[in-house]
Amino acid sequence: MTFPSSLVRGLRVGLVAVSLAAGLAGSLVASSAGAEEPAAAAAPALDPAVKAIVDRVEAKYAKVDTIEAKFTQVKKDSFGKVEQTGDVVLKRPNKMRWRFTSGDEQVFVSDGSTLWIYTKAENQVLRITDASQANAAANTFLTSLDSLDELFDPKIVATESGHTLDLTPKSSGMYKSIRLSLTDELVLSQAIFEDQYGNVTDLSFQGVVLNGNVEDTVFVFQPPDGATVIDN
Prior knowledge:
Blueprint: H1 5-23, H2 26-29, H3 48-61, E1 66-77, E2 80-91, E3 95-100, E4 106-110, E5 115-119, E6 124-128, H4 132-143, H5 148-151, E7 152-157, E8 163-169, E9 175-182, E10 188-195, E11 200-210, E12 228-231
Parallel strand pairs: 6-12
Antiparallel strand pairs: 1-2, 1-11, 2-3, 3-4, 4-5, 5-6, 7-8, 8-9, 9-10, 10-11
Helix pairs in contact: 1-4
């Protein structure tokens, strides 16, 4: 199916946040399905200081079922820099809502079965009924934070406050490195991703709320009046 070029241009920017969510877990850092890899050597034991932080993060996020936050996304590549702001709500399992409120205004919503992508400027909606990738993105943003040692080789980055970890994926994939920053209370504050081509996306979070009361109605999307709906 061919989509309008204006819609495709908008999706390239907005989908970064969705793909980054998945990038925090195995769905994007894992090697391609079905590919054979040589048996991996046993991983060396983590440095005790690193293990202490990783264990605390994993224990905290194993108990987190929802995340609400405002975000700023800055993407830098060979074409320049694009900055967008918005808000996000994630809920286990498989529910997400990313709303971009600046630049190309867009909304990405998944209720676990359908992914809706709305571009305001064009009043167009892309409806994807096979939302498996979006579901993985929504869910793994939470679950990956309780599996850091399994998915990455983590190292501590010295900072004046909070905690910062450099994460190298254990399997090849979209991203070659991720820098994860958390507050002293281990609340997610920033994730910086570098892909295999050197493109960098900086996703920072403000006003993060963990385990808030998020109703499932948040993830229900109704196309605006007059919007063109494109099915995929």
